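Hi C.,

You asked whether I'd gotten around to modeling the 233-residue construct. I have! Everything is below, sequence then structure, no commentary in between.
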Amino acid sequence: MKNTKPSILVVEDDKAILEGLMDVLVFNGYEPTGEENGLKGMEKSLEGNFDLLILDVMLPGMDGFSICREVRRKKPNQPVIMLTAKGAEEDIVTGFKSGADDYISKPFSIRELMVRIEAVLRRSGRAPEDERIEYRGISFCRKTLTAGCGSLSTEITRREMDIVSYLYNHRDRIVSKKELLKEVWQYSDTSIETRTVDIHILKLRKKIVSFFEHTGSFITTIRGEGYRLEPEE
């Protein structure tokens, strides 16, 4: 995968939220580091070289505002996003005065989180210019939403790109339909009966079938188990 993963430090004392954020960031192509303590978070912020800091406001040891002010003093160009309580206008104002580039109010949706992260990284010039997967002779580009092989090319949807990306990141094993529903579609209840996964993969296969003469099969269905990418020769 030709992609320089942006590094993100998340300082959040709620373990469940922290672990959830870490999983989401990994899935979306980032390289996250987590910290639950404010003082340790500040130390990592100053000692490390992160593309983005995500700071909760209320933290043990040292609050997010103080971390942001100290980081901004020593690293004026460091991108920072603050996590605030919903409707806490005072926190938002204080966050911006402390030097934050943006804020996200809890609870937040995954889509909002990713849009704000991408926007801050883009403004700072630290977002990856492209995200491309090269596998079995096929090139999948997230930026242009295309798949290509030699002189052949076809358009793909963002969901199809997400499927390829997830299967690629877990290409050493079989990925079940339930896992795809949870991680790609963000379904909370994966026990529901749906052919969504099968239909999307079928459409993706039809789009890239013309490449198979050059690459061989790509996504294999394991009956009763799920899907996997064929190993590279």
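If it helps when you're writing up: The chain has two domains: 7-124, 132-229.

Thanks,
B.
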